[in-house]
Design brief:
The protein has a single domain, classed as Sandwich (Jelly Rolls). 23% of the residues lie in helices and 37% in strands. The chain contains 5 helices and 11 strands. A hairpin with a 5-residue loop joins strand 6 and strand 7 (107-113). The protein binds 4-(methylsulfanyl)-2-oxobutanoic acid and nickel (II) ion.
């Protein structure tokens, strides 16, 4: 894992967009983002038990798996949105970027690779993309009924109770 401020330069979303300014773990924590490196299967089981995630599945985001829909899917993941539940992703292969909004509303890019696990809190604005290798495999952990519907950013959404709870806890 490496986190840094996104450079906001034009160009494909899958490029690194690396401003060269790193974001440390303390800063991520202030945004409510939790990161773990987990190299043993037992570690994931323990975390799942602790947080009440009883279910899991695996997703592979690649042209091989998704065929002609791949480009559309990747563009879709990159629309800024939030969820009413935590989003937990445990990377099993390949790489990808989660971008989350910092407190001044600028993007923090979080680069993830195999054995990286990330928990995005409910209500945080974020987006996802593969990188130039166009391949990521991830385990998705969830409770019984995941509320993963992406709610795209809008002014009305600022009144959403999960958004308001996030803002009151983390300040944006
Ligand atoms: C998401 O919610 O954006 C995804 O599941 C993307 C693929 S998992 C790294
Ligand atoms: Ni999401």
């Amino acid at each position: 894992m490496r986190a840094y401020w996104y450079d906001n330069a034009p160009g494909d979303q899958r490029l690194p967009h690396d401003s060269g300014r790193n974001v440390d773990a303390a800063e991520l924590e202030k945004l409510g983002v939790i990161y773990h490196r987990i190299e043993e299967q037992g570690g994931v089981d323990a975390l799942a038990a602790e947080r009440g995630y009883r279910n899991r599945d695996e997703i592979t985001v690649s042209p091989d798996k998704m065929g002609a829909t791949y480009e559309d899917k990747v563009r879709g993941f990159f629309h800024e949105h939030l969820h009413e539940d935590e989003e937990i992703r445990y990377i099993r292969g390949g790489q990808g970027y989660f971008d989350v909004r910092g407190r001044a509303d600028d993007w923090v890019r979080i680069q993830l690779e195999k054995d990286d696990l990330i928990i995005l809190p409910a209500g945080i604005y974020h987006r996802f993309t593969t990188d130039e290798q166009n391949f990521v495999q991830a385990m998705r952990l969830f409770k019984d009924e995941p509320k993963w519907t992406p709610l795209n950013r809008s002014e009305e959404l600022d009144a959403n109770e999960h958004r308001k709870a996030y803002v009151s806890q983390f300040g944006k």
